Amino acid sequence: MESTNFDTTAFRQALGSFATGVTIITTRDSKGEPLGLTVNSFNSVSLDPPLVLWSLAKSALSLPVFREAEHWAVHVLSSGQSELSTRFAMRGEDKFAGLDVDAGVGEVPLLKDCTARFQCKTAFQYDGGDHVIFVGEVVSFDRSDVAPLVFHGGKYAHATPRTEREGKPRRPYLGGSFNDDFLGYLLGRSHFKFYGRIKPLLKAEELSDEEFYVLSTLTLKHEMSAEDMDKAMRDVLDEAGHEALDSLCKRGYVSQKDEVFHLTDEGSRTAIRLITSAKAVESTVTERMGYEEGAVLKSLLNKLLDTLDPEAAEMWEYEPN
Ligand SMILES: Cc1cc2nc3c(=O)[nH]c(=O)nc-3n(C[C@H](O)[C@H](O)[C@H](O)COP(=O)(O)O)c2cc1C
Predict the structure, then answer these.
(1) Interval 304-314: pLDDT, tens
(2) Nearest to 116 by CA among 73, 70, 56, 53
């Protein structure tokens, strides 16, 4: 086969535009030592007989072992397993150190908490340029509903199913107006609807929205200078924030010393009570929308906040002692 004069980087980049899942393929060597590597060239081949394939670089340290292996297992990683993926992409390291594994067909080590696992018997091996293509017959598999890890453009990504009505306005007659295609509308309405569930908790504690905001801000840092408080409240509460701070001081929830504000024990107890209840509200909402998508939503909102308010990210970098 002739080789072309492709720009290797550009070729890699173009291949990276094909979004894939991420797998770890494991086996054992002749001495019984576990070994494995991160692979995204995995693919299905045939349903009957059940066949899958993946390709292994001829430069990989694990090549001689896989060439001889009778069995291997493919683990489709879940969205929370990117660190495991990075660990198994290291060359030759002791990748299994500290990992709790099960024994699969042919004593192949099986990793836990994956989205799916396929235990395979080597069926064919083909030469594939600088890679060897392994085809395996699936002898056993299992799966879960946990969202898979995605790899796209050289980066890990989230897989979120699109809603059926995506792109279609909720009320077609509002097409073109400030409706559910407008970020401000979606954020605003979600905020009010979500916050509506928190408000009864505040009422029970006789706290205003502004007081709750200031109280929860102070729980993040334990103590804040007047300047930091100003920054945290800028464009969010402004004057109303200062009134709330005064009121919390009067109620004994916050105390001030040398221009530094901090929560009193009473303030901390109230804040913790409220935040625990508010987290329970969050759980009921994310349970309904799906925990995985709740996590994606938070990740995107954090990205939006970094875009709109880059200073805030710097402010919270400081670790409370
Ligand atoms: C997301 C991702 C996908 C990868 N896919 C493959 C692949 O399909 N085939 C391959 O040979 N290497 C692939 N690698 C690289 C190997 O995991 C890496 O070279 C590893 O160090 C090989 O281990 P070994 O040398 O100990 O055998 C991938 C790495 C990452 C991070």
Answers:
(1) 988 988 877 66
(2) 73
